[in-house]
Amino acid sequence: MKKVFERPKSLRQAEFTYCPGCIHSIIHRMVAETMDELDITNRTIGVCPVGCAVFMYEYMNCDMIEAAHGRAPAVATGVKRVLPDKFVWAYQGDGDLASIGTAEIIHAAARGEKISVVFINNTTYGMTGGQMAPTTLVGQRGSTCPAGRDPEHTGYPIRVSEMLATLDAPSYIARVTPTSPAGLVKTKKAIKRAFENQLAGKAFSMVEVLSNCPTHWRMTPIESFKWIDENMTPVFPLGVFVDR
Amino acid sequence: MTNRKLMKGNEAICYGAIAGRCDAFFGYPITPQNEIPELMSTLMPDNGHVCLQAESEVSAINMVYGAASTGKRAMTSSSSPGISLKQEGISYIAAAELPCVIVNVQRGGPGLGNTQAGQADYFQTVKGGGHGDYKVITLAPWSVQECYDFMPLAFDLADEYRGPVAILMDAIIGQMLEAVELHDNFEIVDRPKPWAVTGMRERDHNVVNSLWIDVNVMEEVNLRLQARYREAEKNEVRYAEYKVEDADMVFVAYGCSARVCRTVVDLAREEGIKLGLFRPVSLYPFPSNRIAQITKSGCSFMAVEMSCGQMVEDVRLAVNGASEVLFYGRTGGVVPTPTEILDYVKQVYDIAANPTS
Amino acid sequence: MLKRQEVKIVGMGGQGIMVIGQLLAHAALIEGANVVWFPCYGPETRGGLAECTVIISSDEIGSPVTSTPDTLIAMTQPLLDKFAPTVKPGGVIFVNTSLAQPPKYRDDCKIVEIPANDIATELSNPKTANMVMLGGYVELMKPVKLESLKASLKEVLPEHNHRFIPINNTALDKGAEVTSR
Predict the structure, then answer these.
(1) pLDDT band per the 50, 70, 90 thresholds, residue B63
(2) Which domains are present in chain B?
(3) What CA–CA distance (Å, rounded) separates C73 from C69?
C-alpha cells in the first residue's frame, strides 16, 4: 500500500497540546514539512516564543532554543551570527512579536538578519487567558477589554507586515491565512519561500499568519475561520509586501 | 618591558576577551564603558569574530543568550543602568545553564545617575539582580592589568560552572590609563559542550530552555545550580591582602576603593597607625572563610565602598560578630580620597581598636 | 626621577588637556615608572570642563585619584580658581598667564607663570599652548625627561596628527625655556 500521509520527520513523536481547531498545529506541521522538503532539519536551530507556542521545542525534531518573551529575533540573531552556515528560524505570536518584542523584530528586520520568522497573529493573548493584544481589532472583546477595544483608550491594531515593509533590508514579507484550501497552499508556499530565501543567503524574511483562537474567541473552529475572513482580513489585508 | 602598553581598563577588557578566545560580542553604547564596544568593533572582526551593536541592552543580552546556546564564547558589556536592563536575560542565561561573560563598568546611581565611578551595583551583581535562585560568579579587577587577566579567567569559569560570570568594574578602573602587559600566559580549557545547539546530525535534538512546568523538575534544576555554586564556593574564592598580619584595623574593599585604601594604609603607617587591606577579588564567591580567620588576630574591620554600604553586609556575615565592622562610603559617583578616609579612621580608631573600652 | 608626583591638569575641553596628560603618562611608562592617568570630563563634548590626573611613582600606585595634588597645571581662569585651593601646601601651580591671573593667595605654593597662548601664537600655532605648559612643567619638576615626552608624541597623537609632531616638539622646548631661565 502506498503511504500518502505521515508525520513529517521534523516533528517529534509528541502530541500537540493546543486547543482543538487551533491554527498553531497546522503551522507547526508546515514548518516541519518545509524543513523535511528542504532537508535542513539537521542544520536547523529553531527559536520559540513565550505564548501558546512556548512548548514548540517539545514538538520540533531539530535543535531548539526557548527564548524570553519577545526576544526571539535577538536570540536568533545571536545564533545566526556565530553559526552563519546553519538554518535559523524564529516562531512568535502577536503579544510576543508585536508588543513586548517590537524593538527586537524591527531591528532584526532592519539589520537584514539572515533568519526566517513565522508570525502567528490571532489578535489575542491565548496562553494567559484572552487578554487584549496589540493586534486586537477595534471593538473586539478580550478579558482586559471586556466591552471591546476602544481606540480612544487603547488605540488601534498594529500592522506589522506593512510596518516592516518600509525597511530596506527584508527580502520577503507576506501575510497569509490557512482558512481555505487555497489559503493553506499559499501559507505553505510563503513559509517555504521565507526558508528558501535564507538558504539562498538573502536577508530577513517574515510570514505573518492570520490565526484563530476558538477558545478565547468563544467560537467553534469553523466559526473562527469565518471570523478571520470576515473581520481580520479587512484590517490585515493578505498579500506579499516585500519580495526581492 | 617590551610588552608593556599604556591603555584604559576598558581597552584591556577587549584585549583580554581576545586572549580568552571570545567568539562574539554584543553591546550597546553607554558611558563610561563606550571604549569596549568601540574597540571591539574593530578588534573582533580583525580576529575573525562577531561584534554587533544591538538595539538595546535587552537585545544585546539576548543575542548573548543565542550565541552562548551554540557553545560559542559570548560576552556583553554595559554600565549600571544598562546592566539593570539585562537582568531578565541574565536570569534566563543562568537558568538555561549557559556560559557567558558580562562586564559592568559601574557608574553613579540610582536612576540615570551620572557617568562617574560607583560601586552600588554590588547587590544587583552578587546577590542575583534578576528573578530566581541563581548566582553570578563575580570578579572585581583593581588595575588595568587585572582587567586583561580576568577576561580569559572569566570565560573559563563560565564554561566550567555553566553560567554567567560578571566582571565588576567602575568608571575609574575602566577609564584610567595604566601599564598593562598583554601576555599570553593563559591555559584556556576547551570543555566539551554536548548541550549546545549546533544542528543535530547524529544525535537527538538539544534544547536550550529555562521553562520547567513540573515543579519537581524545576526544583531539581535549582538544586543542580546550587550544587555548582557550592563547588565554586569551594574552588573559586580569590582575594589579596596588604599588610594584614599585624594590622589593628583591616580595610575590606574591592576595585577602585581598594586602590584608595592601599594608599590610606601607607599614609596611616607613616603615622604609626597599623592598618591593613583585605581585597576580595571574587565578590561571589565571597572570601568569607579567610575574613573569619583574620578576626582571630583581634583586629577590627572597615568596609570602604563607593556605595551606601552593600558589600559590608557580606563582611558582617563573615565576621559573624567576632569583631567590630565599620563602614565608610561615598556614593552617587563620588570617589573617597585617601585623606578623608584616614581622617575618618582617626576619628573611630580608638573605639575600633579597643572595642571593649 | 621623583619618588612620587601627583599632577592635576585642568582647562576647557578642546585645549588639549587630556593629550598632555597622556603624553606625560606615556613618557613615564617608557622610563619604566609606574603611572596612572585618569580623566574627568563634563557632559559636553566641546568646551566643557576637562580635567585629568597623572600619578607617577617608583612604587606601586594605590589611589588613582587625588584631591590634593602636588602640582596643578591650569590652562584657564575658572578652572584655576576651582583647583588652586586644592594644591598641597608647598606644591607648585603652573598658570597659563595668557588666560589666567596667578593665584597670589596661595603664597604657600610656588607659582610658575607661563604665557602659553602668547608663546604658542608666536609659534604660529595657538593650539600648542598645552605643549608649552607641559614643557615648562617637565623642565622644572623633572617627573620625566623632555626627550621621553618627545618620543611619546608619535604614540599618543593619532596618526593623522603626526604632521604636527615637529611644531609640538618646538612648543615643548619653548615651554622648557621659560622655566629653565
Answers:
(1) very high
(2) 4-235 (3.40.50.970), 240-353 (3.40.50.920)
(3) 10
From the list B166, B164, B5, the residue with the least C-alpha distance to B98 is B164
Task: Report the CATH number that the domain containing residue A96 is assigned in CATH.
Answer: 3.40.50.970
Q: In chain B, which residues have their Cβ closer than 8 Å to the Cβ of A68?
A: 62, 65, 88-89, 92
pLDDT in tens, A108-136: 999 999 999 999 999 999 999 999 999 99
B-chain CB neighbours of A81 within 8 Å are 24, 50, 52, 63, 67
**Among candidates C29, C63, C67 on the partner chain, residue whose Cβ is nearest the Cβ of B4:** C29
pLDDT band at C42 (very low <50, low <70, confident <90, very high): low
Contact of A68 with chain B, judged by CB distance below 8 Å, is answered with yes
Instruction: Give me the helices (H) in B2-128, please.
Output: 9-19, 35-46, 57-69, 80-95, 122-126
Measured between CA atoms, how close is B53 to chain A, in angstroms?
A: 10
* Alpha carbon B175 to chain centroid, angstroms: 16
Chains meeting C at 3+ CB pairs closer than 8 A?
A: B
Show the domain range for A70: 23-243
The ipTM value here is 0.96
Give the span between the Cα atoms of B201 and A42, in whole angstroms. Answer: 5
CATH code of the region C4-180: 3.40.920.10
Contact C26 B6 (CB under 8 A): yes
Q: Compare CB distances from A75 to B56, B62, B206 and report the shortest one's residue.
A: B62
What is the number of domains present in chain A? 1
**Please, do chains B and A touch (3+ CB pairs < 8 Å)?**
yes
CA-based nearest residue to B137, from B106, B94, B96: B94
What pLDDT does B351 receive? 58
A10 in any annotated domain:
no
